[in-house]
Amino acid sequence: MRRQLQGSSVSHSMVLAGLLLLIFLSRWIYMVNVEPNVDASTWLAASHSISSLPDKLWLILNYTDSRPLTVLPLWMLQLLGVPLSYPMAETVGLVFWLVTIIYLYRTFCLFLPADRSLLLVWVMGMLIATTWYNDHIGYNSEHLSVMCITVCSYWYLRLEKKGSMESWQVALLGVVLGSLLYIKFQNVPMGLVIAAMALWKLVGQKKWAQVILLTVAGVMPTLLMNAYFFVKGKIGDFWVNYFWNYFYYSYSTQFQPMPVVERFGPFRTLSFMLNSTHSRYYFLGILIGLLLLVLWPKDGRSQKDRFLKMNRIFSVLLLLSSLYASLQAGNNFEHYILYLFVPLLYCLVVWLAHAQVPAQGWALGVLLGFSMLQTARNTLTRHTLEALPSGEEDLVIMRTIQDNTQPTDPIVLWGWADRLYYYTLRPSGYRLPHTHNLFLDSELLDYRVKNFMDDIKTTRPKLIIDLARTPYSTFSNLGKEIAQYPVINDYIRMNYQYKKTKNGIVYYIRK
How many CB atoms lie within 10 A of CB 485? Predict the structure, then answer.
């Protein structure tokens, strides 16, 4: 019997490995060195700046759009000699998805047979394998975020199932949960749900030492960050970059005119979830299947299983917190939808696990049917990404940068065209590869102007290029020329000479 179980385990592991290989190859053959979205360029530019400028720790914490752990994997690969490129970044994001699928499978196996777990994890696996949407495949903070949230969910549910966890595992769980903020601020709601559920379990067991350990480990990353910024005399930078920036982004209309109370309406939620045809049928299958399971008459037996009860509570809370994180800012950015790939499927699977047999059959049939429809749609319409329309002008800008600077010379692109840092392999003279935040009226504007001035006085960029109001800059309709900022404009007039204006782009070179 033991040999049979071992053989079955090996067989399931081989099937899972085959699925992961299929996902990797299906995506790998379509990778091209073309910008998928502006965020991918931001992380590549940040990684190169860290590699090129001194004081690496300060740069990691400040030249990364307040997401140091998003940039860290790219920079570490660069240290190992892997050239920066869009396929390199996409591969990193894909590896994070593969780890996510592994831990999602392991989580399913806590309450489902392995063969059923494989079938259900295949649903998301095929979506990841066949999607070619730029906001899905482009390297974003969501990839690492979703992986860490999935891994931490598994650790908590394993604690709930097994009833115990080693102290070092508790400490590691706390550190990872406490570090979610430094991948992306939107991770905080999901991290708090996982932490609260784990603490509730440990308190119920009266394991006070582990309760304290989990709490201390969770706050330790932020305590260390504050200590570092305090020693640097820049404690204000930490709170502006890591907290206030996202507080105003999420809880005000300074960045997004949609009233906060309107951001969670059912119509907006569904339209946001089903907007993209690249994942619409995946979500439809889950939503219809979940509706069937929730409305199907219950027999009452499942309420006796404590793990099932806690698992259901957790699945609902994780889903609600993920929806909150996706909708809170009021922006319909398609990469936010990545947060829902796992929790929606997981919620369905938890309710499916102990539903009555007829309900299981209907829900599973709907899920698999829509999953195959999504896979077919993505496969039949798939094509490689094409270069941006600005490609020809990009070459002109690149030649100007390369002709007037050395590879170690910092430059500043006033606007949002982070790809040009990567194309020219020049470090950024400002802590953000883009200056978009300086164009938005907010309580933080004066502080951002001060940061900009401090940075360019320190790095002394060789070139400053104003393209904020041109088509080559993202959200150019919101851009403002340097001339609209008296303090910055005066400094540039004193320390730089006007070089030329071409196609609306103004070039300044340091005297």
Answer: 20
Alpha helices in 296-356 (DSSP H): 306-327, 341-353
Nearest in space to 109 (alpha carbons), one of 314, 365, 349, 356? 349
Pairing of strands 505-510, 496-502: antiparallel
CA distance 363 to 369: 10
The pTM of the full predicted model, rounded to 2 decimals, is 0.94
Q: Are 273 and 283 in contact (CB under 8 A)?
A: yes
| Cα separation values, 16 from 118, 129, 193, 345, 454, Å | 7, 14, 29, 18, 51
pLDDT of residue 306: 82
The mean pLDDT value for 392-414 works out to 94
- For residue 43, what pLDDT band results from cuts at 50, 70 and 90? very high
Strands 463-466 and 411-414: parallel
CA nearest 251: which of 331, 333, 329, 323?
A: 329
List helix spans (H) across 80-113: 86-108
Q: What is the pLDDT of residue 207?
A: 95
Render pLDDT for 263-301 as a digit per residue (tens, 0 to 9).
888 888 899 999 999 999 999 999 999 999 988 877 655
Question: Of 102, 114, 200, whose CA–CA distance to 146 is shortest?
Answer: 102
Query: CB-based burial of residue 306 (10 Å sphere; 0-12 exposed, 13-18 middle, 19+ buried)?
Result: exposed
Beta strands 463-466 and 505-510 are: antiparallel
β partners of residue 506: 466, 501
Give phi and psi for 297, each to the nearest 5: -55, 135
Rounded-to-integer distance, Cα 509 and Cα 461, Å: 9
Mean pLDDT (the chain) is: 92
pLDDT at 6 over 60: no
Taking Cα atoms as reference points, which of 302, 300, 326, 59 lies closest to residue 184? 326
Q: With the CA atoms of 405, 410, 414 and 419 taken in that order, what torsion angle do they form, in degrees rounded to the nearest 10?
A: 80
Whether 359 has a pLDDT exceeding 90, the answer reads: no
Q: 29 to each of 90, 132, 285, 383, how far by Cα in Å?
A: 12, 11, 28, 11
Structure tokens at 324: 């909150």
What pLDDT does 258 receive?
76
In the predicted model, is pLDDT for residue 255 greater than 80?
no
- When pLDDT is averaged across residues 80-98 and rounded to a whole number, the result is 96
How many alpha carbons fall within 13 Å on the CB side of residue 313? 17
Cα–Cα distance for residue pair 89/39, rounded to 1 Å: 11
